[in-house]
Design brief:
The complex is a heterodimer.
Chain A (H helix, E strand, L loop, with lengths): L5 E10 L2 E11 L4 E6 L5 H9 L5 E9 L2 E2 L5 H6 L2 E4 L6 E5 H15 L7 H14 L4 H5 L1 E2 L5 H15 L3 E5 L7 H13 L6 E5 L3 H6 L4 E6 L2 E6 L2 H9 L2 H7 L1
Parallel strand pairs in A: 3-10, 3-11, 6-9, 9-10
Antiparallel strand pairs in A: 1-2, 1-4, 4-5, 7-8, 11-12
Helix pairs in contact in A: 6-7
Chain B lengths: L10 H12 L3 H10 L14 H4 L24 E6 L2 E2 L9 E7 L9 H9 L2 E7 L7 E7 L5 E10 L4 E10 L5 E10 L4 E8 L6 E10 L4 E8 L4 E10 L5 E10 L4 E10 L5 E10 L4 E10 L7 E10 L5 E10 L5 E9 L3 H8 L5 H17 L5 H16 L1
Parallel strand pairs in B: 1-5, 4-6, 5-7, 6-8, 7-9, 8-10, 9-11, 10-12, 11-13, 12-14, 13-15, 14-16, 15-17, 16-18, 17-19
Antiparallel strand pairs in B: 1-2, 3-4
The chains are: A alpha/beta, B alpha/beta.
Bound molecules: adenosine-5'-triphosphate and magnesium ion.
The site of magnesium ion (MG) has 5 residues of chain A, from helix 1.
Amino acid sequence: MTTPMLEIRDLHVRVEEREILKGVNLVLPAGEVHAIMGRNGSGKSTLSYVLAGRDGYEITSGEVLMDGQNILDLDPNERATAGLFLAFQYPIEIPGVSTMTFLKAAINAQLKARGEAVLSTPDFMRAVKDAGASLQINSDMLKRALNVGFSGGEKKRAEILQMALLKPKLCVLDETDSGLDIDALRIVSDGVNALRSPTRSMLVITHYQRLLNYIVPDVVHVFSDGRIVKSGGKELALELEAEGYAGFSEAAA
Amino acid sequence: MALQIPVRIGPAEQSLIDQLNSVGATAEATRFAVIGLPTRKVESYHYTDLKQLLRTVPPLASVATSASPPALRIAGAHQLMIANGAVQESSTAPAGVIVGKTAGSALGPRDDLLVRLNSALATETLSLVLESSVDPVIQIDRRTEGPAGHAADSARIFVADGASATIVETYSGSNEPHLTNHASFVQLGKGATLTHITVDLSSKSTTHFATSEYLLAEGARLRTLTIHAGAGLARSQVFARFAGERAHADFTGLNLVGDGQHGDITIDISHAVPNTTSKEIFKAIARGRSKAVFQGRIVVARDAQKTDAKMMMQGLMLSDEAEILSKPELEIYADDVVCGHGSTCGALDEDHMFYLMSRGVPKAEAETMLVRGFLAELTDPIVDAALKEALEAVLDGWLGG
Ligand SMILES: Nc1ncnc2c1ncn2[C@@H]1O[C@H](COP(=O)(O)OP(=O)(O)OP(=O)(O)O)[C@@H](O)[C@H]1O
Ligand SMILES: [Mg+2]
């Protein structure tokens, strides 16, 4: 069997003495898209932050393998360079750092870390222009400070722009659909779908079945109280929409 | 009047007394012998106790015979130089600029030690009259060269009605424990526009004192930027007076201090007439065991209705041993004004760091990006590209040093 893109084994995580993740198990094969659905506060964003390597989480047990490599000891930038990308539920505003400067620094940092040649300015500009066009991101937005004053939808589109430029092999999308109007949802979904490939996997966290009509998942996982309590095909999302989460937390007990 | 009991005089003070006497400033010497250097008990020196900080005073600087390389090169700038207090001969001035020299200091009388010392010790003043809009950036390169010396120098800048200019003053010199005392008197005529930047780039062994005094006529537009990026002990004083209506000024500054350094920027802004506006943005970055001080005083006179003054101080601490002290003071005697101040201080934001690193940017580079971002507010308004680039190089040099 080939190595999965992501394998999470019995992951337990505490935040400030409180256990938030209580034994997460997940296998995401290369090329697949898995959705995670679950009620507010169940630990979905915590999982995404732990994957990306944010500080402040105490991993009490478990393993996270990306493409067979244990990533829990890597710094966030090393994980990114290894191919992980997290589209934030709440993208961070960074005053004083222009979006363009940031994009260039990020792309070139990753290329450099992989021992590849950095992009020339014209090549970089072209790449941004091309990726921006399909996401309907105008150049004015790119001149502004990173995420500062971007609308909710603009922030989400900017996240997907970064994803398109950084070409990660594992994409974690944390509620990328929330705050998007109907047109933006289509634009963003098209952007995400364009990135689907046999060598790229995606973990899509969402509350809404609607997104999954656009980004059709191979597997849907139900997340409850810090772990995955049920997994199934895309019809599971419809079931959830109809019945809510109540039945599923009981199933875990 | 209370009887002043003479203070105990230390070696630094004795040197200053002798020096004042040697130039014939006997009244000043006598006065100083009674009060000595300001201590923390003097309010405006509360965080910069010169009696503690200034232990020795080098002999009065003699004529400079050598010159170190320029501390800051700005492409296309017109250079003027003052070395060890003496105004140097200069090449032909650009159109609209009259360069001259007058005797004594340019500062007006003020009960402040640094001003008093400059007034007593500066023997001549570089005089600049800007008659129209001057294109090239004008750089006043102030040096203290040779063996350790106490040097006082002075410049007077007059921007005529409707004229505009950008002036950069840089302070540097040989790597010796100099004591320097710089003065600038800057007057803006009606509708005049000036960007005035001062950059301390002297060696860490130097003690750098600088006083800038501004006088703004009706409709004048001023932007200042005071940068400390050199001396071990630095204090820059900004005194400004709005004397004409509809004048506006942005007073900005950046206090960079590293291990063993003490930097103090003290400003005193007087809105003396109605309808004037000012915005003060001062930033400090402290690393190692260091101290950055900001004192900001804004006085709004009783008649100065419709004054709009907003002051902000932001500190960035890059080490646990660093100290950033901020004292804002608003004295408002008018009732129809909009005035405010704020102050923040902290380390780099962890969420910002995480976001950048999560995109593959290594830690050190992410820090540099955030620090540059922190400073962008000060450098962005600088229009001249070469000047902006030169200043950014100074900041990058400090960050990388
Ligand atoms: N830094 C923290 N300090 C304390 N508690 C935290 C912290 N981070 C997360 N938690 C708690 O952990 C739980 C899980 O939060 P998390 O953000 O992972 O939920 P979520 O499933 O993403 O919810 P939502 O659907 O609302 O986005 C919540 O109860 C939250 O309050
Ligand atoms: Mg969440």
